[in-house]
Design goal:
- By secondary structure, the protein is mostly beta strands.
- Helix content is 12%, strand content 34%.
- It contains 4 helices and 15 strands.
- The protein has a 5-stranded mixed sheet with strand order 9-14-15-12-13.
- A hairpin with a 6-residue loop joins strand 10 and strand 11.
Length: 216
């Protein structure tokens, strides 16, 4: 495989959504480069170690269509790249119930895995009435929610004490997310693997994984 590109160029800017509102927790990266980051509460991001020349900035955020923008980077110089993203309109839960084929990866995992907890469209139809996605996970045995409200995190509750570690949250293929980066009403299905459940190795590195697919 080709090595990631690098250099001394820098890129910063703001990611905004509907109504010019700043978007937090958007994943930002320059295509082909190793550097990546996430926007803060003000929608700001900053990337360094980038290659000079004409590059492509990729931005992804749960609930929004992927955005890409060409940027002209220069060695040792910080370039500004502001991005606007378009909201994706979610399907209502009734249509999702009748659209199992939209979640092929979820269905395959459910079919072949011995371990794990799988919440399909029907289960999510009533769970989506909770305030936060962390409230949905709180109902699954083997997990513990640390913190309050939107800033809460998921850890494995098995074993107790020092055995607890932070679960990898994967939303629409983006890993390392926070559980409340997605609203409960946006969730289509969930595959939850606790510590020891032997989840997909690309996501489960020993502390379990919660894999979320949003409504299509």
């Amino acid at each position: 495989a080709a090595l990631p590109l690098s250099g001394t160029a820098m890129l910063s800017g703001t990611v905004r959504g509907t109504g010019d509102a700043p978007l937090a927790s958007a994943e930002v990266r320059v295509r082909g480069a190793s550097a990546m980051g996430k926007t803060d509460a003000s929608g700001r991001y900053s990337l360094s170690g980038l290659p000079a020349g004409t590059q492509v900035l990729d931005v992804r955020r749960v609930g929004y269509g992927a955005a890409e923008m060409p940027v002209e980077l220069r060695s040792g110089v910080t370039i500004t790249g502001d991005v606007r993203m378009q909201r994706i309109v979610n399907l209502d839960s009734i249509r999702v119930v009748g659209s199992r084929s939209h979640y092929k990866e979820f269905n395959e995992q459910q079919k072949h895995k011995i371990f794990g907890v799988f919440l399909g469209p029907e289960e999510m139809a009533w769970r989506s009435r909770t305030s936060y996605a962390s409230d949905v996970i709180k109902l699954i045995p083997g997990y513990q929610i640390v913190g309050e409200g939107r800033k809460s995190q998921v850890v494995n509750g098995r074993g107790g004490g020092m055995m607890r570690c932070r679960t990898n949250i994967v939303i629409d293929g983006m890993e390392g997310m926070s559980i409340n980066d997605v609203e409960p009403i946006e969730i289509g299905v969930i595959a939850a693997y606790r510590m020891g459940d032997q989840g997909p190795p690309e996501y489960d590195r020993g502390c379990g994984a919660i894999i979320i697919w949003t409504k299509r």
